[in-house]
Amino acid sequence: MKTLILVVALLGVFQTHAAPNEAIKVLNPSVKIDKGNNVISISNNFGLNSWDTVLDYTTGFIATRLFSRRACVVIPLKSSVFPSAEQFDKQPVPVTLKYSAWQTPIEDLSRFGAHVEALCDGIQTFPAVETGDIATFGECANSIIITILGITICF
């Protein structure tokens, strides 16, 4: 019986790592709003699928650190879509944006501001471009896809 349980557990582990499409879901994120610095920090602690996100309204960038990928992704913060830091806790985030991460890492993080630099320091960081078009986003079918705050990023 113990052998059967061990075999099933190992198959589950290997199947999880072999799946081409991973979905990282938000369970119970921790949100910190710093209205003075115009920055929102969101952390989702879920084992290997944990991630941290920083929305820096001053520099106009969002960065997400994906612990399972040991990587960061930086995208422009669309102030026309996201509620301001003052309104963030009162207003839901009605976002459905799609991005595709580039394969070339960013060399200099300082241009994205201190908050993004602190989050992504020491790991590969990739820019992402908005795809918007569902047909273009279909190229991500065999990639890892994550969705955070209504933003879908394809690797």
UniProtKB/TrEMBL annotation:
Signal peptide position in this chain? Answer: 1-18
Q: Which residues form the BRICHOS domain?
A: 45-128
Q: Does the keyword Hydrolase apply?
A: no
| Keyword annotations | Disulfide bond, Signal
The protein in question is named BRICHOS domain-containing protein
Q: Which organism is it from?
A: Pleurodeles waltl
Q: What is the lineage of its organism?
A: Eukaryota, Metazoa, Chordata, Craniata, Vertebrata
